[in-house]
Amino acid sequence: MKLLTKISEIMAKFKEAIARLYTNVFVCRVCKSKVRSDPLKVRLGKVKCRKCKSKALRPKHREVKG
């Protein structure tokens, strides 16, 4: 478990990794699946979840160091 924490701390320092993990990534509020899409399309309601067809999407939360 500690090794996994160390790896995530090292990865968080790279801007490329942060951009890949969190940019344009949204999570369905119903079934918790991830969808990568343009934020403007999500706000306009043009993007649906692939699994449950819901339009309720939120941005992916960043991990809190603690």
Description:
It is a single chain. This protein is an alpha+beta fold. It has a domain at 24-66. Helix content is 36%, strand content 15%. A 3-stranded antiparallel β-sheet has the order 2-1-3, with no helix packed on it. The radius of gyration is 14 Å and the shape is elongated. The mean pLDDT is 85.
Summarize the structure.
The chain has 66 residues and is α+β, with helices and mostly antiparallel strands.
Give the helix/strand layout.
Elements: H1 2-11, H2 15-22, E1 25-28, E2 34-36, H3 39-44, E3 57-59
Antiparallel strand pairs: 1-2, 1-3
Structural class of the helices, strands and pairings?
A: alpha+beta
Helix-strand string? HHEEHE
Instruction: Quickly count the helices.
Output: 3
Write out the strand line-up for the largest beta sheet, numbering strands in chain order.
2-1-3
Overall 3D form = elongated
Mean pLDDT: 85
Seen as an oligomer or otherwise, the chain set is single chain
Name its key features.
elongated, 3 strands, 3 helices, 66 residues
